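User: I'm writing a short report section on ligand binding and want a predicted complex to refer to. Could you take this sequence and fe (ii) ion and write out the structure as C-alpha cells? A short remark afterwards would be nice.
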Amino acid sequence: MIDLHCHILPGIDDGAKTLGDSLAMARIAVADGIHTLACTPHIYPGMCMNDGTGIAHAISTLQAELDRHGIALKLVMGADVHLVPGLIDGLRSGRVPTLNGSGYFLLEPSHTTPPPRLEASVLALIQAGYTPIITHPERLSWVESHYPVFLRLIEHGAWMQVTAGSLTGVFGKRARYWGERLIGEGHTHLLATDAHSTGRRLPRLSEGLEVARRLVGSTEANRLVNERPAAVLKNLPPQDFGSIEKETGRPSALSSWFFRRRAAA
Ligand SMILES: [Fe+2]
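Assistant: Sure. The C-alpha cells for the complex follow:
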C-alpha cells in the first residue's frame, strides 16, 4: 500500500519529534503493508515554516537512516498545505511541494472554520493545472453544514482523502460517520494515515481499509490505497482515476446510529 499523508519527518511539525519516533513509525507502516510513504509536514505560514528545500533535505536524511536500519520503506516528497494567499506561486516555484513533483498536492482546510472563498480558491488551483486533494473532510467541524460544497469541489476536479483512523473511531463518532458516508457514497479518492506518532495517530491503513471494503467492496477499496496513490506518484491524469466505483455499499451500523441520534435530537 501507499500512504500519501504522513507526518513522519522528525522535529519539523507536530508529528514525529525525534529520529527514533520516525523509525518507529516507519516500522509500524511497513508491518502494516505500506511500502511507499509521502512525507507531508504542515506548511502553515506563521506556525510551520517548512518549504520544499528543507523538506527534501529532511527526507533524504531520513531515507538514509531507514536504509541503514534495513527498513524497507520508500519516502517521497509532499506537504500538508494550508490555503493561504500566494499558494499557486508557491506551488509553481517549488517552495510548496506537490506529491512527488506531480500536479497533485494535499490541501488542508481549517478544522474549525470554512475558509472564505474555498470553492473559488480550489477552482483557481484546478485551473492552474493542479489537483488539490482535500485532507480529511470528515474531521472538519463544518462538514455537516457544507457537505454539498465538498461534492461540488469533486465535480470541479478536486479529490478527497479520508483518514484511516476516522473509520476506526480514533477521532470520535462524528468523524467516523462522515468518513463512512464520504466513502460509502462514493466521494472519496484516497485513504491515508495522516499519522503523527506511534500512539493514537499511528501509520496504519489496514483496519480502515477493512471498513472501506465493507462499504464499497474490494476493488474500490484497493483503489483507495494502491491504484490512485500510484497514479498520483506517476502524475497520471486525474480524470483517468477519479471515477469511484461502488460494488456493494450498504449502510453501516454506525450510520444508522447517527441518523437515529439526529432524528431524536
Ligand atoms: Fe496532516
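A remark for your report: The chain has a mean pLDDT of 92. The first helix runs from residue 19 to 31.
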